[in-house]
Amino acid sequence: MTSLAGKSAMVTGAGSGIGRATALLLARRGAAVMVADINRDAAAAVAKEIAADGGRADSVYIDICADEAIAAAVQATVDRFGRLDILHNNAAYAPQDALAADTDILSIPIEVWDAVMSGTLRGTMLGCRHGIRAMLKTGGGSIVNTSSMYGVGAFNMLPAYGVSKAAINLLTQQVATAFGRQGIRCNAVAPSMVRTPMLEGAIPEELIRINEDSTLTGSLPSPDQIATVVAFLASDDASHMTGQILHVDAGTTAHLPTYDAARRFFGQ
Q1: Residue 61 appears among annotated catalytic residues
Q2: Model's pTM, two decimal places?
Q3: How far apart are CA 58 and CA 89, in angstroms?
Q4: pLDDT, average across residues 191-216
């Protein structure tokens, strides 16, 4: 396990879920971490949690729908820690009302489609833009974007969410291709459903069980298990990995669509 001592990181959407778990893990491995979130109190609480554990952290407000807010958060990281080595573009535009309206392309309100693209996709692009500008000043760095299994294969619903995540996959490869010779690595993680309190409060248990049945491990990953992969991609252990989309989905996207039904048919 490579130490991240001396590295500076910024994690967006770090007030909860995957972002929080990643911020905590990067700090435990020695990185100074800027906890960025639209919820100022949640970001500050995670930064305090890191400090209480002996790590180095600060918090900053970020709104991924606003270019100036993303630029300011990156600059705050550089001002606070002297450089930016690791950027985890984890935040997405996914308020509950937008997810509820993201049903199909016949009925989704155009303003919801545009908001998802502006937040999730454009916000990730802008994170890359401002992150790369900072990283180039100190010889490079590692960017990890959060994609989704819904960006790898189509789901019955969530077309805007899925298309935005699919575009992030190509954006990841575009960044890796354009800036690799300048010391920038860019990869993405594509999780399945992840067991979080928010998931369990918003998704019917029956649908969660359907997703568990489609895994090859029999369980959905936790935020900590996603964070472990992000930390690996951010580290020198992954120094020759770039332009990759890692499916951290318990094998959900690795099998034929008939897998879970056939498993029950054969009594497995």
Answers
A1: no
A2: 0.96
A3: 17
A4: 86
